[in-house]
Amino acid sequence: MKKKLIRLKESVKKKRSKPGVDDKVPRITNKTVAEHREEVIGGARKYILPLQQSKHKIVLFSIGLFIAAVLGFFTYCTLALYRFQDSGSFLYRVSQVIPFPIARSGSQFIAYENYLFELRHYKHFYENQQELDFDSSAGQRQLSEFKRRALDQVINNAYIKQLAAENNISVSDKEVDDEITIVRGQNRLGNSEEVLEETLKKFWGWTIDDFKRSLRQQLLAQKVVQTLDIDTKSRAESAVTELKNGTDFAEVAKKYSDDAATKESGGAFGAFVSRSTRDLDPLITSRLFDLEEGQYSELFATSYGYEIVKVIEKKDETVKGAHILFNFKDVESFVNDVKASQPARIYISLPELAAIEQAEVTQEEIQ
Predict the structure, then answer these.
(1) How far apart are CA 163 and CA 229, in angstroms?
(2) How many CB atoms lie within 10 A of CB 34?
(3) Residues in a beta bridge with 307
(4) What's the sign of the alpha-carbon dihedral 176, 182, 184, 188?
(5) Nearest Cα to 214, choosing from 125, 328, 308?
(6) Which of 8, 29, 174, 270 has its CA 20 to 30 A from that of 205?
């Protein structure tokens, strides 16, 4: 029995003397914790550093790709606008966001969007109302003329704005709304907001805001001319003085009026007019219906000159009237003075009509 116990003890000692799992686990003490921490972190670095480098490469690649896309986008837009002169909807929207210039007058750049705004409403009207095919030779010739007209218009508008700023001239929202109210009161723009919007879209491809924008520019040009055309204002005031001194309206019309068609008849219009008459400026019609028979109006301005109107006779819902017209000088007479001292620099080239016509002749000879 003793021998068996002795052999069992020896067997246990041998097993304990063999290295086990517990012997492989490091013993961590306060003195060795820093060493073991560095050992663990060092082992993890071989996984962390490659991951960080991959993220860095992804960021650089993404930035590079973004820059390439932006450069490609600007290159495409530049070629489309300046070389191919694309006036499509996409590039028009782009030009509304990014201020690509089409010309420069003095120190001011003229936005390409202004040019497309003018050109696109010409194209819309002739494509949809006149059924003009701009791919035809006649359409190409007409399009070239539209481009020239639109470019001249936006350059003149820039000079008009400059003259307006120099003379403290502006157009308020109320003035624009009042103009629309007068025209709509005569049923020239429809009797509701929906009809007006539909009409503008159908004929010009405009929204109401587009229409107000165009109208604001017209009113600004009108006010600039009123301010600068001193000679016409002086003639008109002389006529008003004679009327106030008792001179007959017809005699004053014969003496001063610039309307060759009516001045010899004392300024009288040929027929009765109604509120919806489209042959007269809406302001004239409005003033006539505000007067009593035999009365004449104060001097007022229209888009083309000063007017004085008189009611000769009223009959039912119509009026027979007369007027004295004082034509403004053309706004270009004032714009050209600024152009001479500050010529515009244009960033696109338009095809000459002569070149288009020559190409048509050559095409006919080939056929």
Answers:
(1) 13
(2) 9
(3) 300, 325
(4) negative
(5) 125
(6) 174
From CA 206, how far away is CA 73, in angstroms rounded?
Answer: 27
Phi and psi torsions of 302, nearest 5°: -115, -170
Structure tokens at 182: 């007068």
| DSSP assignment string, 231-259 | HHHHHHHHHHHHHHTT--HHHHHHHH---
pLDDT tens by residue, 235-287:
999 999 999 999 999 999 999 999 999 999 999 998 898 887 878 888 899 89
Cα dist. 161→111, 142, 220, 232, 246 in Å?
13, 28, 8, 22, 41
Taking the C-alpha atoms of residue 196 and residue 180, their distance in angstroms, rounded to an integer, is 10
pTM of the model: 0.74
Tokens, residue 118: 């003018």
Residue with tokens 């509120």: 275
| Higher per-residue confidence, 146 vs 51 | 146
Alpha helices in 18-136 (DSSP H): 21-24, 33-78, 89-97, 112-128
Nearest CA among 102, 197, 226 for reference residue 153: 102
Which residues, including other chains, have CB under 8 Å from residue 139's CB and lie 6 or more apart?
A: 132, 133
Confidence of residue 289 (pLDDT cuts 50, 70, 90): very high
Classify residue 296 by its DSSP letter.
Answer: B
* Tokens coding 193: 């907001």
Report the SS3 class of residue 330: coil
State pLDDT tens for residues 200-220: 899 999 999 999 999 999 999
- Residue 286: other Cβ atoms inside 10 A: 18
Task: Please give the structure tokens belonging to residue 110.
Answer: 């003229």
Nearest to 87 by CA among 113, 110, 108, 109: 113
Q: How far apart are CA 185 and CA 176, in angstroms?
A: 14
Residues found in the chain: 367
Q: Return d(Cα 335, Cα 339) in angstroms, integer.
A: 6
Q: How many CB atoms are located within 10 Å of the residue 134 CB?
A: 14
Q: Which of 219, 218, 325, 319 is nearest to 277 (CA)?
A: 319
Asked if 276 contacts 188 with a C-beta cutoff of 8 angstroms, the reply is yes
- The residue type found at 246 is G
Q: Nearest 5°: phi and psi at 258?
A: -95, 5
